[in-house]
Each structure stands twice: as C-alpha cells, then as structure tokens.
Amino acid sequence: MLLERESIPFLRVALLLASVVLFGLTPLLAQQRGTGLVTVRVSNAVDEVPIPHADVRLYIFGNSNFAYQGYADGGGRISLTVSSGAYRVMAGAEGYEAGFEEVDIGAGQQITILVRLHTRSKPRTENHAEAVSATALAVPDKARQEFAAALEILSTSPRAAVDRFQKAIDLYPDYAQAYCGMGLALLSLKERERAANAFSKSMELDPDYGQAYNLRARMYLEDRNCTSAIPLLQKSLRLNPQSWDAHYYFGRCLYEQNRMTEALDEAKQSQRSPRAASIVHLLLADIYLAQNQKPQSIAELEAFVREDPGNSTVTKIKARIAQLRAAKP
Length: 329
Prior knowledge:
The protein is an alpha+beta fold. Among the domains are: 3-20 and 208-326, Tetratricopeptide repeat domain (Serine Threonine Protein Phosphatase 5, Tetratricopeptide repeat); 34-123, Immunoglobulin-like (Sandwich). It is built from 14 helices and 7 strands. The chain has helices at residues 3-20, 28-31, 134-137, 141-153, 158-171, 176-188, 192-205, 210-222, 226-239, 244-256, 260-272, 279-290, 294-307, 314-326, and strands spanning 35-44, 55-60, 66-71, 77-83, 85-92, 99-105, 110-117. The strands form 2 sheets. The protein has a 4-stranded antiparallel β-sheet, with no helix packed on it. Strands 4-1-7 form a 3-stranded mixed β-sheet, with no helix packed on it. Strand 5 (85-92) and strand 6 form a beta hairpin. The longest helix has 18 residues, at 3-20.
C-alpha cells in the first residue's frame, strides 16, 4: 500500500497547521514563552521616505509560513506583539522588491527595525502574492483591527474568531482576506460548507488573492475531488508562479490521478521555494515510492523528521521508515 494511503490523515492535520499560520497564527507553545513588541518601519532605500501600507510579515526560523502579518500605516510603520524568539522580517509593497531583516526579541523587549525597499528595475507583468492588492489597501483601519483581533484568537477560540472576522466584514463588506480567515476558522470547527462558501466569496471579491484559491482547492483535495481542485490551483499559479503551497496541492492532485512524472515536477517546484513547508517531503516520499525508488522515498521521510521533529506525525513516520528499511527489495 502506498504511503499516501496511510498519510492522508497526517495530510489533513499538517495542511491545517500549515494553512493556519498563513494568516498570522502563532504556535501555542510559542505563546507560552512571553511576548515582546516589534515595530517595523518600511522606507525607500534611496531617500528613506516612509512607504505607506507595506505588507509586513514575520517568519519563525525553521518555519516556512509566516507567523505574523499586518500592514504598515500611512507613515510606513507597524507594531506587532509577538512571542519571544528569532524572526525573519519581510516587507513588500507594490513597485518595490521585497526587503528582509532579522530580529531576535526577548520577553518584555521593545525593538524597532528598519526595512529598506528598492524599487523594481522591471515592472511585473502579472499579479503576485507578495504584492499588496488594491482591495487590501482600501480596508479601513477599524476593519483591520477586527481582522487582527480575529487572527490572535484563531488558534484558541475559532468560534470567537469567526465573530471578529464577521465584524471586520460588517465594517468593510469587500474584505476578501477576512472571508478567507473566516473560512479557515470554520474549517477548524468542521463547518466545511460554510468554510467553502467563505473561500468562494473571498475569490469573488478579490480574484487576485491567491490564498483563497489554494485553501478551497485544499478542501477539494481532502475530498479527493482533484477535478475541481486543479483549475483553482492553476489560477493561483498564474497569479503567483512561486507559490509553494499551490505547487504542493497541485502535486498531490496529480499523485492522486497517478500522473507521477507531473506530480514529481510540481513537488520539486514547491520544494525549491525558500518558504516550502516540511510536508513537501511527504509528497516526494509518496511519489518516489510509487515509482519504486525506495531509497529516495526513505531519504525524504528522514528529511521530514529532521526538519520538523515536533510534528505530531513524526512517530508514525519513523515507524514507516523502519518498515521500508526492513522490507525486502
């Protein structure tokens, strides 16, 4: 039996965790370490003029998805209360290359960092996930505040988070990201029909917001309905060809359809992204095993264990590695 058949339950857990942090959710263990205040100032690298409404994201080292996200105010500044630890800070804005800095903050500390952005030498011809959409820029401050409040409680109180996302939507009915966040909260509550409707509404309001396509496609994938998932993923990849999760979900669909050569290509494209999550190794392991390449499959499983030792599936993955090693060629 292929590893995929055994790892689908792992996939459901892993994908939910991977998707949750896409909306700024901090792992519960990190929340217990104490918090600090990080203020990020985003400015033009040439003249130091503040860049308003920049998209700012903080990544925990070793985690491919961002842990915190928000938009700078009109003065190019944003303050985020974060769990203590080391982060990679990314800032992006339309017309600029993304900028990166690093910060290590302790409990009770307040740190200000400056991220300088350089203008793009060539205009982009397509919309990309890193760019801040016009829809996002139009969101009123009060709606943003409700959205941020919903993100903070999404892991511990998804029902309350749904209410806060709804308040954000009431304040700004075209808030695509709030609908997408609500869909994620509803997924954790196992209200799949409402979640699907929320993702569909997000896509309708902002056709350039790729994450909604990915999450709706993920739901189809969980239902093994790859026929419906694939067009959404193709749309997402047209918006952002570097989207690791879209390549990952696409690869999973192709695997389900027994299109292993194409699945392997998508998995490798996903893995090439610096933001790729450890679950890509599980997809590669499944594909290699289906192609009778057991050593490569074992290597991918071992890479998963090394990169994500705290994952709830590690014990079963280790058992699977032992089983594959013991099996006769």
